[in-house]
Amino acid sequence: MRIGFIGVGNMARAIIDGLLANKTVAGSDLYLHSGHIEHYGDYAQTIGAHVMNDNAAVVANSDIVVLAVKPKIYGRVLDVLQPAFAEHKVVLASIVSGVSLAELSQHVPAGQPIVRLLPNLNVKIGAGMTAYAINDAAEDDAQTVLGLFDAIGKTMELNEDDFSTFVALAGSAPAFAYLFIDAMARAGVKHGISKADAVRIAAQTVAGSAEMVLAGTTSPSDLIDQVCSPNGSTIRGYLTMEDKGFSSSVVAGLDATIARENGGD
Predict the structure, then answer these.
(1) CA–CA distance from 143 to each of 67, 96, 123, 134, 154 (Å)?
(2) Which are the contacts of 9, defined by CB distance < 8 A and separation ≥ 6?
(3) How far apart are CA 138 and CA 152, in angstroms?
(4) CB 209 within 8 A of CB 227
(5) How many Å is the maximal CA-CA distance in the chain?
(6) Rounded to the nearest 5 degrees, what angle is found at the Cα of 39, between the Cα atoms of 8 and 64?
(7) pLDDT digits (tens, 9 = 90+) for 12-67
């Protein structure tokens, strides 16, 4: 399967790195083009990918084309490529944030299969979370695209109206998880553990706790109850965090992220 990337920024590279790491694709299966060769030429050479002279060449040589450009230029990029899409049947897989299937379809030939995807950075290590939506023309082709993202994490079909919330819960939230891990580690340093050891302890604890949630049907709330013994240390720490506004701060942060994603200031 030949996969093209129009745009080779951080998220595109995370997808590529994840696919290469688990041997879903080889470097020779990849066809890349972006605006500035100096930003990705060495990377392409290292992984053995093909560097194309323009975006039309990416389309002509690919079975799936991942659109990974900035939202402000996606329309101009696709408009120029309409003849290429008309001439060569490919599936367009867009990871452009904030651009709907309806908006994408205005810049490609009628009947173009489109899969809209919102992956998070964890695809780089095969632990991503990706939301997707497809247009009617992609019903027969979507599984090929989704198979790639299933190989580097989990996928979930969502109504496009929920994509901005997904961005907060999955796309932006790794930064919030890193904030939590860093705060835990700093508390460990405060009490005498080295920063490196404290980060390792906190990160593994968060990873294991997430696996516990994913492994069964027990809710996070019930798992909290299992850890908190009566009059114990954990319940005292838990109630102190809540008293300091832990949960309300998390919700407020997600609210702000969603509002910005929806075009707010």
Answers:
(1) 17, 20, 18, 10, 14
(2) 34, 68
(3) 21
(4) no
(5) 70
(6) 20
(7) 999 999 999 999 999 999 999 998 899 999 999 999 999 999 999 999 999 999 99
CB 188 within 8 A of CB 197: yes
Residue 249, H or E segment = helix 246-261
In this structure, the chain runs to a length of 265
Q: Which helix (H) or strand (E) segment is 218 a member of?
A: none
Q: Residue 13, SS3?
A: helix
> Distance (Å, rounded) from C-alpha 6 to C-alpha 12?
9
Count the helices and strands in the chain (H runs, E runs).
Answer: 12, 8
The closest alpha carbon to 174, from 120, 213, 215, 132, belongs to: 120
- On whether the CB atoms of residues 78 and 104 are closer than 8 A, the answer is yes
Q: What are phi and psi of 77, to 5 degrees?
A: -65, -45
In the chain, the DSSP E strands lie at 3-6, 30-33, 50-51, 64-67, 91-94, 114-118, 128-134, 153-157
From CA 170, how far away is CA 197, in angstroms rounded? 27
Q: Pull the structure tokens for residue 197.
A: 């050891």
- Structure token pair of residue 252: 């407020």
Q: Rounded to an integer, what distance in angstroms lies between the CA atom of residue 198 and that of residue 194?
A: 6
The structure's pTM equals 0.90
Dihedral angle, C-alpha 24, 30, 36, 42, nearest 10 °: 70
Q: Report how far Cα 103 is from the mean position of its chain's Cα atoms.
A: 21
